[in-house]
Amino acid sequence: MNTAKPDNPFALSGKNLRRIAVRLVIYAVIAWLLPGVALFYVLCGLYDVARNSRLDGYTVYQYFFGRGMFTWLLAPFNILMDIVSLPYWNKGVYQLADLPPAHQAEVRDLIQQMKDEDLVGKIEQRLGDGAREMLFFKWYGQNIDGPIDIPRFRGDYPLVRTIGVSVFNRKKSTNRHFGPLRMTLRVLYNLNDVQSDQAWIEVGRHKNVWRDQKMFIFDDTLMHQSFNETDAPRYCAFVDIVRPGLFPQLMARLVDALGGVLIRVNHIFYKNWSFIR
User: Rounded to whole angstroms, what are the CA distances from 141 to 109, 129, 211, 261?
Assistant: First the structure.
């Protein structure tokens, strides 16, 4: 039985209260100077945060005042991506069979390549003692030079835009958090065989235990949290694939264009991670 608990659901410490007060003042000034823009962002944010299946005070607080602020800033763009992706409605949490055949084929091919390359074995030789460690081969369409070179991953995957592996060390978890962009879907695949039910991911009220289901696909702009309460590291393929839509190649080019900019600041997104050397 899972015993780990999520981070404190709503701890209004003095520091948090000061943060809320400061940001409310900033929001009030923006609303006074740019009332139309402020109203637009409030409406976009309310729609965006309401997509979370666990819509409680903590989720709303984090979205507007905490870890979700960057997601809120990008909410108009992300909503546009939802519209552009129609008639493929954003399901939030997916099965592989929900994706078009071309998407399914690339995911299967990539996972098989990781297994054939014994990627877990290669990473084990370099694994440090960080709580959470990451290795990227590709990030938003941009190839990343790293300690392990797999030429196939540098090749042309028309739909896969991020290729990496995330490693949670023993007894390590994340806080609940939001991803920033909705041009892609996050595909996670448990590469090592977890025998315990003490390693899992939660997206809102949806929970996926890695022992029972090795693949999990979701919209990572929804609040989510990962746990590893086992006594062994947990290795997951960390993949972003272009969202299904009428024009997937156009979306892929847009991801690449943004990736060329975001790669300069990707340390912001992974500041709590160590990178495998």
Answer: 17, 29, 30, 11
Residue 27: domain span: 14-84
Q: Domain tally for the chain?
A: 2
Q: What is the pTM of this model?
A: 0.89
Give dist(CA 157, CA 64) in Å, integer. 36
3-state secondary structure of 143: strand
**Residue 3 is assigned to a structural domain of this protein:** no
CA distance readout (Å), 52 to 11, 57, 221: 20, 12, 9
Give residue-wise pLDDT tens across range 217-263.
999 999 999 999 999 999 999 999 999 988 888 888 888 888 777 76
The token duo for 64 is: 């507007």
Q: Are 269 and 164 in contact (CB under 8 A)?
A: no
Distance from the first to the final alpha carbon of the chain:
35
- Helix or strand or coil: residue 6? coil
Q: Do 226 and 104 share a structural domain? A: yes
